[in-house]
Amino acid sequence: MTDRPLRYDERPDDATPVHTDELPATPTRDRNIVATAWIEAPAELLGLGDDLPGRPTATYKRRIGSWLLWRAGPASGGDARYWAADAADLHRQCTFRLFPDGTGEGAGPSGSTHARFRLWKEDLAGREIS
Fold first, then answer.
1. What is the DSSP letter of 3?
2. CB 85 within 8 Å of CB 68
3. For a Cys staple, 64 with which of 7, 21, 87, 124, CB 3.0–4.6 Å?
């Protein structure tokens, strides 16, 4: 038996009901918390993967500052969409679309549009982007 973290696509889905304040700050390495398990999940999150190939269900990734980060689709090499909401105001939402070729596009909470996922995450963290 190994103690290595499971790859995201090897982790079992966890549909155990969870409230916002129970979502972990750091990534879960043993399971994928599905959007339908989040009791306060906004409709925008529940339909995040509806227009993507295979209609993937969004899974929870982590907190970035006050933002809750979720993804529908693969981490790389495919069509995916990231969604983030401010835990204190779930109406404050941002999305980032990731394409199979690695390009992407999304607006961060600053209002700036980003072509790189890393910069979009920096925007969520409230860091200066140069």
1. -
2. yes
3. 124
For residue 15, the SS3 value is coil
Q: Where are the domains of the chain?
A: 8-125
Q: What's at 77, amino acid-wise?
A: G
The H or E element that residue 106 is part of is strand 104-107
- For residue 126, the 8-state DSSP code is T
Prediction pTM value: 0.92
The pLDDT profile of the chain, 130 residues, written as one tens digit per residue, is 457 778 888 899 999 999 999 999 999 989 999 999 999 999 999 999 999 999 999 999 999 999 999 999 999 899 999 999 999 999 999 999 999 999 999 999 999 999 999 999 999 999 765 5
Give which of 59, 62, 107 is closest to 80, Cα–Cα.
Answer: 59
